[in-house]
Every structure is written in structure tokens, then in C-alpha cells.
Design brief:
Strand order of the largest sheet: 9-10-11-14-13-12
CATH architecture of the largest domain: Beta Barrel
CATH topology of the largest domain: Thrombin, subunit H
Shape: globular
Order of helices and strands: HEEEEEEEEEEEEEEH
CATH superfamily of the largest domain: Trypsin-like serine proteases
Distance between the termini: 27 Å
Radius of gyration: 16 Å
CATH class of the largest domain: Mainly Beta
Number of helices: 2
Amino acid sequence: MFSMTSSRRMVARTAAVALAGALCVATTSGSAEAIVNGKDSTQRYPFMVSIPVTGVDDPTFKGVCGGSLIDSKWVITAAHCVDPKLVTLDGTVRIGSAWRNSGGTVRSVAKTVTHPRYENGDNAGPNRNDVALVRLNRSVTEKPIRIADRPGRPGTATRILGFGTGDDAPDRNEWVFPDRLQELDTRRGAVSEYAPGYASNTRLCTISQVPKAMACNGDSGGPQLQRDRRGRWELIGVTSGPGAPGVRCSEGPGLYSSAPAYSDWIHEAMIRNS
């Protein structure tokens, strides 16, 4: 997750960061939890997907991204999670498990489709159009999550999920990825809670309801959820990066690509690439 600089000098550093999920820029003490002060999942999320990835510039480093099953053969994730300049997909994904390395259904990746206007951000701004689709080689029986018609207003209660590290230190050697899926209760943030230039109709500001907690390394591409009128989860966001530059994961807002804003592109891309 998180904004990438375009300079070659930083690519090696940020490639590992991208595959793991976040660019966090200050050290913090270690934690056994993940998302950074999240907690073990409290219910089944059959649409949750884990996507193993490897750094392009450091193939010894193995990381993970998240994703959401939105159709029996399609997963939505962050574009930087499938960016060939940054990462290599390991070739399979795991769907519907509360465990990163076991359970659920494993499928091969048949194809990836990145938004045509995706841009890596840099230290001064966010990633743009940071959404991509992964087509599975075969359908799965897990129930997909519905994309919401629109995100709730600022203040709406939401929840984020991920297998990311609980330590937001910049040194990847200090990252510890949990075996168990983590969740964190959050809320939609207001434009005023973003850094200047981060707000847009395609990017959602996300604020933790727990002190010193937010998505971090390894959570990229994972879901932000809200309840519909019947109390069922629906997808509003895709983990993209920090909502402000120069802050560690646990101290800043999170930035999420708005799934409803890209619903037309998602539908058309699935038809074209089926």
C-alpha cells in the first residue's frame, strides 16, 4: 500500500513496501497484532482474498496484498499490488479463509486488469486510480461481496480487513505478518481530515475508531466495508495508501479507492476480459 516515488533510487525500497502494502515512514515498537492494533476477525468473510506477492527488486522478500471477491471468478485489489514494476504475483490467491496460508479455496491467477489511468503517487501525493482486477482460472463457491451504490457520508461506521503487519516501522525486517485475518472498526473521514490534495470523488478518507490503529504493510488491496440497510456488509473501498504524507500508519488517516466510483469500469472490464 501506499504512495510510490518515481525516482529509480527509491524503487528498490518502495517495491518491497508496495507488495507488503504500505509506505510507513517512522519507526514504532513491535506488535503481535496486525493492521496495527487491529484484532482477530470476529466472523466469516467469505469474500476476503489474500494475494501472495514478491518484490521485483528483492525477490527474497515475500509479502502479501488483500483483495475482495466481487464475482465468482473476479477479485478487486489495488493496482499497485499487481504493478509489474514493483511486484510479481506468486500465481495463486486464497479466497474465503480467516488464515493467510491455509483454508478457503486456492485458485490460479488467469489474468490481471489494471485501471488504464492508474498512476503511482510520490512522497507528495496519493496513488491515483489505484484499482485492478484479478481473474481466477476457475469459479469459486464463496459468496462475493456486493459493491455499494455509494459510500456512506463522513462519519459512517466502516470496517477494514487485512493480513498486514502490526508493526509500521520502515524496516521490512521488522514486519510480522499474522496468520489470522485482522479487522478494525473505522469510519468515513471528512475532506478536512485528509492532507491537502488527497481528497477526491474516487478516494475515501478513513479514520480509525481505535487509537493508534490503521491499515499498514500487507493490507493493500483489501476491503473497506459498510453495512447496507439490511445490516449486510457491502464494499466501499480498496486499501490504497496513507491519507497524509510523512506519517506512520498508526497515526494518520487511511486512503481507500472508492469501489462505487469505479463500478462502471469494473463491470465493463469484467465483460471485456471474461
